[in-house]
Write a structure and sequence with these properties.
The structure holds 2 protein chains of 2 kinds. Chain A has one domain: Orthogonal Bundle (ABC transporter involved in vitamin B12 uptake, BtuC). Helix content of chain A is 78%, strand content 2%. Chain A contains 14 helices and 4 strands. In chain A, the strands form 2 sheets. Chain A has a two-stranded antiparallel ribbon. A two-stranded antiparallel ribbon of chain A has the order 2-3. In chain A, α2 packs parallel to α7 and α11 runs parallel beside α14. Chain B is globular, with a radius of gyration of 19 Å. In chain B, α7 links the parallel β7 and β8. Chain B folds into 2 domains: 173 residues, Rossmann fold, CATH 3.40.50; 79 residues, no CATH class. Classes of the chains: A mainly alpha, B alpha/beta. Chains A and B meet through α7, α8 and α9 of A and α2, α3, α4, α5 and α6 of B.
């Protein structure tokens, strides 16, 4: 499939997904399903972030929830404990997570292969532990309450629906930003590092810098997701940011299409909704969930986007063939 | 023509295995130099040390008058060194032109903000990169394959793409590690013409090679290694008749190969 066709498919998928997400609140009236919808958008932002480091740079990251949690807490503490303006607190959360990403990423990503995965598994546990036990600062098990909603030019986002659209608009902007990075020379360099780090270095790329660069972007997106989550629920607690949540982001990306920005959003939306639809099965939902992931990995490693790409390629090829047959018969 | 590369008393020891011993090498700007020697003589190790894949145990590498011994590999590339790999290290998910575009990363001038936010300089630079990429692909005769996935190319063209990718870094010297491996006689002829075209562009070429046919016709000077030491150095005519060189290889085999290419 040529580059132009690939972009066309991406544009089509992203438009469909975002239009559906825009119209969804009309059909989703009750509170809990609406929460799931909003969670889908927030997860979408986090998975787009994961895509930078895992999709583009090829480094497995098993601690996105930890960074999301740090973002949530940085934002919440600033807004509630220190009375910061919502937007200032949001920016603070991005900076804090960015700093964590830099200081954790740099020593780890200097190494090749899978050390980021190992470090992030450990960091995930440490983070949850610290959030839980440093009660004097974080509020411990009780978490933080009364987290404010934003206001913009006098408009208060107290209404859930209004807040949802704010999150959706941010999600769309972050989507466009991710696409621009993907198509830039940085995106190409990241893919080179993913495909063959040694060859990339032999081409003059500082692979450590590039990996840390991707990792910091992941952190920034996670922070935004964390801020939105905290502000939507207006309550955070350490129990939310678990390794299971971290892993679910990885499975959302793999399911939707690793390396693909629309795939990230698609996977996050699909699996967030699926997880909730299967909630009636209690713990057995994991069986279906795991089965869906296994099927994807075995049959289409590039996830839903991979399936759509294949379908489109087949249709294009079939169209060309029938044109050829028609020309031949003339 | 000045000296572009000076390898000074370089040794490399891998936990007891002495791969290189006190090697001295001096390459002139614009030269086509061949490094030959039996398997295991340290040719690829030498290239790896020069290009920065690993540091020497002792000795210095002076490139363009600058001591690059402690520079990481990617820094040396920015100084003007480029290389290809013996076993081909192409990018499995990229197309032909994407390889060349990716390689231009180091020479881009527009910073992060100019690239990711829509800007005139950013778009201009992207367009220039595309143009330059197509120019390089035309130079190596791969222009018609630009959009194809690199892995779909036949072997001979993959080797050419690997070279083109090295050229995209705009190097002053390029190290080719067995560029003729697995090529047919016709393909070697094309490769020879390509090497001369590269030399015409002012790029110094240093090639590690086993195929004597190519070495004898294209190299201006040959350095011979054996067991990590330099055993001979000189123009092809002199090397061809050097008894130590002939002995280092499997005697008869090399002698007959050299005889054939001498005709």
């Amino acid at each position: 499939m040529t580059e132009a066709r690939k972009r066309e498919l991406e544009r089509t998928v992203s438009i469909i997904v975002f239009v559906l997400l825009t119209l969804a609140p009309i059909f989703v009236r009750s509170q809990y399903p609406f929460f799931v919808l909003c969670l889908a958008v927030i997860n979408g932002i986090a998975v787009m972030g994961l895509n930078f480091i895992f999709g583009f740079a090829g480094q497995l990251h098993m601690g996105v929830a930890a960074f999301l949690g740090i973002g949530s807490y940085a934002f919440s503490l600033a807004a509630v404990k220190y009375g910061w303006n919502w937007w200032a607190a949001a920016i603070l959360s991005i900076i804090v997570v960015g700093i964590f990403s830099l200081f954790l990423g740099f020593p780890t990503l200097r190494l090749k292969r899978y050390y980021l995965a190992i470090m992030t598994i450990g960091f995930q546990e440490i983070t949850r532990s610290v959030l839980m036990n440093w009660s004097s600062f974080t509020g411990g098990v009780f978490g933080i309450q009364n987290i404010p909603r934003p206001s913009l030019f006098g408009l208060q986002f107290t209404d859930n629906r209004l807040f949802y659209y704010l999150a959706l608009i941010l999600s769309i902007l972050l989507y466009l930003l991710a696409i621009r990075i993907e198509r830039s020379r940085f995106g190409r360099a990241l893919r080179a590092v993913r495909d063959d780090e040694l060859a990339a270095e032999a081409m003059g790329m500082n692979s450590t810098f590039l990996k840390v660069f991707a990792f910091i972007w992941c952190g920034a997106y996670s922070a935004v997701a964390g801020t939105l989550y905290a502000s939507f629920q207006q309550y955070v607690s350490p129990e939310l940011y678990t390794s299971a949540y971290s892993f679910s982001f990885v499975s959302m990306l793999v399911f939707g299409g690793i390396g693909s920005v629309p795939g990230a959003v698609l996977g996050a939306t699909a699996l967030t909704v699926l997880m909730e639809l299967l909630r009636f099965m209690k713990q057995w939902y994991l069986v279906i969930y795991a089965a869906a992931i296994i099927v994807i990995i075995v049959y289409e490693p590039y996830g839903l986007m991979g399936i759509l790409t294949r379908m489109r390629t087949k249709r294009l090829a079939a169209a060309e063939l029938s044109e050829g047959a028609r020309d031949a018969s003339l | 023509m000045g000296t572009i590369l000076e390898v000074s008393r370089v040794s490399k020891n891998f936990e007891g295995v002495q791969a290189l011993t006190n090697l001295d090498l001096s390459v002139s700007e614009g030269e086509i130099r061949a490094i030959i020697g039996p398997n295991g003589s340290g040719k690829t190790t030498l290239i790896n040390v020069i290009t920065g894949i690993f540091p020497p145990s002792s000795g210095r590498i002076i490139f363009n008058g600058e001591d690059v011994t402690n520079f990481p590999a990617y820094h040396r590339v920015r100084r003007g060194m480029a290389r290809t790999f013996q076993n081909l290290r192409l990018f499995p998910t990229m197309s032909v032109i994407e390889h060349i575009l990716a390689a231009q990363y180091i020479h881009a001038k527009v910073g992060l903000f100019g690239t990711i936010l829509p800007s005139k300089e950013g778009s201009l630079e992207e367009a220039q990169m595309y143009e330059r990429a197509m120019e390089i692909l035309s130079f190596v005769d791969l222009a018609d394959r630009a959009a194809m996935p690199a892995v779909s190319l036949p072997y001979g063209q993959r080797r050419v793409l690997e070279i083109a990718r090295a050229l995209a870094a705009d190097p002053k010297i390029v190290f080719l590690d067995e560029p003729a491996a697995g090529l047919s006689a016709d393909e070697i002829n094309s490769l020879e013409k390509l090497l001369r075209r590269i030399q015409e562009r002012g790029i110094t070429i240093c090639l590690v090679e086993h195929r004597m046919m190519l070495v004898m016709s294209v190299a201006e000077k040959i350095t011979v290694l054996n067991y990590g030491e330099k055993i001979a150095e000189g123009p092809p005519e002199k090397i061809k008749d050097d008894p130590e060189v002939i002995e280092a290889y499997l005697g008869r085999e090399l002698a007959s190969e050299l005889d054939k290419s001498g005709e």
